[in-house]
Write a structure and sequence with these properties.
The chain has 166 residues and is mainly β. It has helices at 12-16, 41-48, and strands spanning 5-6, 28-29, 36-38, 51-55, 63-67, 75-80, 93-102, 110-116, 122-131, 138-143, 146-147, 153-157. It contains two helices and twelve strands, in the order βαββαβββββββββ. It is globular.
Length: 166
């Protein structure tokens, strides 16, 4: 397996320029994964709706965030899963919302905006990069063309009952 190569020479402004396609603006490239590229809004909805996002990709996790939206909805709540909803010391709790939208002038490319509630509401905007169709559970969340410093985010699709922790 070849190591990931970071290709972050382009600025976020260049990324937003009309006509720049996914082949020319990668956040990161893993040459061992076919079809690696920037996800569209529909691909993000399918990936993140009713899924657990684990960051960094391996324990100890800084974040275990459960996305409550469906696989066909651009919005949903973000639940900090912690030790689960029934834990007496560190139970799950609602911490914000997410919204997926298509970006103007960039065709099918999309962004996801996480808005965390609390005494000082904060928002973070990302593009999401990975293989389509999904061949791994690892995806790059990028600010402009810069991936998160801790590496990719592991996405665990949830099936059936209660969320499965990271």
């Amino acid at each position: 397996m070849k190591p990931r190569l970071l290709v972050c020479a382009l600025t976020a402004m260049a990324l937003m320029a009309p006509g720049i396609g996914r082949a020319f603006t990668p956040c990161t490239i893993n040459s061992s994964i076919p079809s690696y590229g920037e996800l569209s809004d529909a691909q993000m909805e399918t990936l993140l709706g009713n899924s657990m996002a684990c960051y960094p990709q391996a324990a100890p996790y800084e974040n275990q965030e459960y996305h409550t939206g469906s696989t066909s909805s651009p919005t949903g709540n973000i639940i900090d899963y912690k030790k689960g909803p029934n834990d007496p010391v560190d139970p799950s709790k609602l911490i914000g919302t997410y919204n997926i939208t298509t970006t103007t002038g960039r065709g099918a490319h999309a962004i996801i905006v996480y808005t965390y509630t609390g005494s000082s509401p904060t928002s973070f905007t990302y593009t999401v990069w990975g293989p389509e169709p999904a061949s791994t559970n690892l995806y790059d969340f990028c600010v402009g063309l810069t991936p998160l410093a801790g590496g990719p985010v592991r996405i665990i699709p949830q099936v059936g009952g209660s969320p499965v922790a990271c």
